[in-house]
Amino acid sequence: MEKIYTGKTIEEAVAKASEDLGLIVGEFSHTVLEYGSKGFLGIGAKDFVIQVTYTPDPCRCVRDYLEGLFEKMGIVDVATDITIEEDTVMIQVTGDDAGILMKNRGEGVDALQLLLSLIVNRDCGEYYKISFNVNDYKEKTKNRLEALALKTAAQVVKNRRKTTLPPMTSFQRRIIHSKLQDYKDITTYSIGEDPNRRVVVSYCGEDGPAPRPDRNRGQRNDRGFRSDRGPRRDGNRGGKGGYGNKRSFDRDRKPRHEYVPEGEIYTGPIAHFPGEKLSGSAAKAAESSATPITGGTPFTMDSKE
Predict the structure, then answer these.
(1) CB-CB contact of 112 with 132 (8 Å)
(2) For all residues of the chain together, what is the average pLDDT?
(3) Least enclosed by CB within 10 Å: which of 4, 55, 245, 262?
(4) Any residues with CB less than 8 A from the CB of 294 and at least 6 apart, and which?
(5) 37-69 pLDDT per residue, tens
(6) Across-strand partners of 81?
(7) DSSP state of 3
(8) Dist CA 265 CA 300 (whole Å)
């Protein structure tokens, strides 16, 4: 990485660079771009300009970025511990104010980890992995998701039915995949797009998944109704709201009135009860008949009566 510094002398410009970068003189190199001059009686004086080349410390890059970010977010009561283990920068943030970063399923933690990775690998000469943790969020999340993975896998093996888990971040999905990769008769895969990407826990045993119940209870007839429905209970007619059983065909009820146009002959059944008074053409037909009126007896209905 390169930066420009100025000073009345080269030594002054180098000292400014050392103080600003937090490095000793031997940890960076410099090149003089412009030589300064004192001018005439101070008129026309010019400063020395140097270009400093250095390899940034990843820990310092992370600390400077987080300090500026936390100041803008109003996060004050936090402590930041940064260490390097092989090729990984370990960042641990603790404090009550840091809890705001863990909202929305920890998406803030994942976003900051990605940003820090881009910054460190852009400015530093070597590639570093970034592990960003807030109040032991990753350890707690790992324990919770591993327990969920084992419980879900046991249910899938028992029922031989695949189960789709709620949406998770990439970090959370990796925990599920890793925990169940050696689980017998279980396979896992992800579906959907972020942020709604989910893990599916599926059964892959030799006996295969359990057969689904037959939901096709019968074929439909020409009118679109199913023909496999059983007989109605007690001969009652069904109805909405569960009131169908309150009306029975067994009790007596008056016959249905039929309308027959004037001049036409009604040949349908004539039903009347003992003691019932007939009127109109039905009464005339009954009077002219030597025998009681039975079903199918023809007579003429008078529309005026």
Answers:
(1) yes
(2) 76
(3) 262
(4) 270
(5) 777 766 777 888 888 887 778 888 888 889 899
(6) 92
(7) E
(8) 5
From the list 73, 136, 65, the residue with the least C-alpha distance to 102 is 136
pLDDT in the model for residue 305: 41
> Which residue ranges form the domains of the chain, and what is each CATH number?
2-54 (no CATH), 58-135 (3.30.300.20), 138-203 (3.30.1370.50)
Contact 66, 80 (CB under 8 A): yes
d(CA 38, CA 31): 20
User: Higher-confidence residue: 234 or 29?
Assistant: 29
Please say whether the beta carbons of 98 and 75 come within 8 A.
yes
CA 218 – CA 6 distance, rounded (Å): 90
Q: What is the pLDDT of residues 94-150, one digit of tens each?
A: 888 888 887 777 778 888 888 999 988 887 777 888 999 888 888 888 999 999 999
Count Cβ atoms below 10 Å from residue 162 Cβ, excluding itself. 17
C-beta separation of 141 from 135 below 8 A: no
The most distant pair of C-alpha atoms in the chain lies apart, rounded to whole Å, by 153
Using alpha carbons, list the distances in angstroms from residue 267 to 124, 179, 270, 276, 293: 105, 82, 9, 20, 12
Q: Which residues are CB-contacts of 109 (< 8 A; sequence separation ≥ 6)? A: 101, 102, 132, 133, 134, 137, 138
In this structure, are residues 51 and 39 in contact, taking their beta carbons and an 8 Å threshold?
no
Residue 38 corresponds to which tokens in the numbers above? 């004192």
Query: Whole-angstrom Cα distance, residue 280 to residue 293?
Result: 14
Q: Cβ neighbours of residue 188 under 8 Å, at least 6 residues apart?
A: 176, 177, 180, 181, 199, 200, 201, 202
